[in-house]
Each structure stands twice: as C-alpha cells, then as structure tokens.
Amino acid sequence: MSVNxxxxxxxxxxxxNRMKRVVWAVVYWTLFRISPAPxxxxxxxxxxxxxxxxxxxxxxxxxxxxxxxxxLEIADEAGVANGVILYSQGKITIGKRAVISQGSHLCAGTxxxxxxxxxxxxxxxxxGDNVWLAAEVFVHPGVTIGEGCVVGARSVAVNDLxxxxxxxxxxxxxxxQRERIDPDA
Length: 185
Known about the structure:
By secondary structure, the chain is an alpha/beta fold. The protein is built from two helices and 19 strands.
C-alpha cells in the first residue's frame, strides 16, 4: 500500500515494505533464480515462505521476476514461464491451469497522472482458469482475463477480456469465440 502521495519527494512504499523486498531480493538471487528448472516445488516453497498462495503442481520457472510474492496467488497446475514479469505492487491472481508464456508482463501498479506528484495506484490483476497468455503479452493494472481466454502474442490487455474468447492486438480485442472445454471430460 502506498504511503506517499508525491513520488517526487519519497518512496511510495513504507520502509517495512522496502526492507521485506530487500530480503526477498536476496532469496530470489541466491535460492530462487539459480535453482534448476525442474525444481518447481522448491520455488513454490520459497514463494509461500514470503506469503504467496501457491497451488499444487504449479510450474514456476526460475527466470520469473516477482516484485512482491505476498501479493501473488497462483492456483493448481498453472505455469509461469521464464522471462515473465509479475510486477505485483498490487494483487495478481492466476487461475488453475493458466499458462503465462515467456516475456509476458503483468503490471499491477501505475501512477495517477492527473495529480501532482503522480501518486502510486495499485489495482489487482486476475487471470482466470484455463487462460493462455501467449509470448510477451502485457496486462495493465485492474484487468481481468476471463476463464478460457487466449490472448495472442505481444497483445496489450488494457480492458477486461471475456471468457472463452481468442483476443489479440493493441489494445487486445475479441477476434472470435473459443470452444468451451470441459476439464473433467
């Protein structure tokens, strides 16, 4: 949570938050980042140790950049590829069996450009179950990607995207409906 309304005069986050991020950075660079790719359970353990809610059988690769694990929730069997940035200044939720491909960037923080000092604004990002964000997708703060949605490579999601659709572009728009898949079939 932001503690300063003027980013020209000081940091947006409390000293306690900044210290917690320093400790996370040490763990990230010494234990998370250098861990071998197959050690998904180890990385899930490290994230849980910092307050993340991580489901079972997740595949979080060592090259994922995570700003604040305590603002992260990843459901069962989700995959987050190398090169993904989870800029979790605010809450980021990733649903069951969602796939976040390499180079994608989920950014849950921005600044209010209508106010002097550009105060920090955080808004949650929600990625639904069975979503696929293809390579290098950018998701803006406050966006919800609906269940089963596929977002094409290098797309920019500035608004919510509906369930079971295929979306692409800048800004990402619906190209067509996607056939609903029953995960229990």
